[in-house]
Amino acid sequence: METKTLKTFALKVILILTCIIVGFSGFNKCEAQSIVGKWNQISSKQFLTAEGSKTHGKSVLETQMSSIGTVVFDFKSDHTYVEKTSHAGDSKVLTFTGTWSLSGNQLELKLDSKQEDPKYNPKNDVVPPKITLSINGNTMVWSTLYPDSKMTAKIELILTRF
User: For the chain, which domains are there?
Assistant: First the structure.
């Protein structure tokens, strides 16, 4: 009788621990899940090469998006995204669509071959730039290196979650 009670107790403990472990595992977000949602680009920093610094008289060009327009990315859980871009003083909104993938901290964005405006149809042989991203709370930073550029060494984009 006591053995049966002990087995029943042990099964209940195992069941409860399993439920707790499974329940808490839902709180662990992987990076791929953390970018899903809408992100607003708030600024950019263009780090210049020596030649670019000479041309512009400084080593970094910073731009606040509020002064030039808006860029909003909507990353969907099915690994597609929609980018909506507008320029200050212009009511026209350009919409771009594509797919995204994330491996560790490396984000890859590929534009769909058919876009809303045919002049923005990408060539299929274009290699997307390597984007290294970091997320801290509701802020995401994209860093892209341009080793073949004479003017720009790196660009950082700062985005915030809606």
Answer: 33-161 (2.40.128.20)
Answer yes or no: is pLDDT of 152 > 80: yes
Q: Is 145 exposed, middle or buried (0-12, 13-18, 19+ CB in 10 A)?
A: middle
Average pLDDT over residues 76-105: 95
In whole angstroms, give the CA distance from residue 119 to residue 107.
25
Q: Are 154 and 146 in contact (CB under 8 A)?
A: yes
pLDDT of residue 39 exceeding 70:
yes
Structure tokens at 152: 């720009």
Residue 34 predicted with pLDDT over 90: no
| pLDDT at residue 151 greater than cutoff 70 | yes
